[in-house]
# Entry
Amino acid sequence: MNRCLLLLFASWIGAADLVVAPCAAAEPKVTKDVAYAEPATVRRTLDVYSPPEGEKHPVVVWIHGGGWKRGDKSSVQRKPQAFVDRGFVFVSINYRFVPEVTIQQMTGDVAKAIRWVREHAKEYGGDGESIFVMGHSAGAHLAALVGTDERYLKAEGLSLAALKGCVPVDVSMYDAAPQIKWLEENAPVRAQLFTSTFGDEASRIELSPIKYVAEGKSIPPFLILCCANRPDASSQSAKFGAALEKAGVAATVLAAEGKDHGSINSELGLPDDPPTVALDKFLNGILKR
# Structure
């Protein structure tokens, strides 16, 4: 198995642990603007960053943020290099925005991209059977929704078992209905972003990942990253993580100190960055199985 993964034999515990660790930096092979759905538009394309050699590398599908209304797959900061250094194929996707489409249709775009990755990963040295979905802000919400509501992947001929893990980064819409109601009562200007995007209360419930958490659904393990100083994101993350654990789904929540909504995203991949350390541990725990 050609991965940038170190197999460390710890004789003093009588076990071997597979550890994700950065290798010597190598420039990723980059393939941009690949259409993953028809009709092909710029909003339904993806970029692939792959290690220069090897095969059966695990794959990260990354979903950018932008309030469900903006953003681009090029906004990946250091992530492509960081993940390639760890032996992953990194795929950054675009998706359509409101008001052109609904959040359901956006999540459908994400599911289509995952199906494309599963079918084409081998062409880029990746393993279509080892896909992790991750995202920041609005992208975190979409990652959590596609990782809990099985209808989106089912529409693409897949199940939740197609995902090895899910890592949403700093979003406050895991349980959208009570969160938006609180904003309407306490921060009406800020609430306008969410009311125009999530619709009425019934729609808000329908678009909440927490609604779909249940036992026996093959929901993948979750690592939920958030900023400790964002009470809405940290409280919603804790609530979502507790619901997953209650349903028997492995879930870890890290409320990172000293981060803001931007830096928790832009610094992901830095050495000694606490969310990155947690991410490496999360990936290790899955890949060593």
Notes: The domain at 5-287 is CATH 3.40.50.1820 (Rossmann fold). The chain has one domain: 5-287. Confidence is low (pLDDT under 50) at residues 1-18. The CA atoms of residues 65 and 139 lie 5 Å apart.
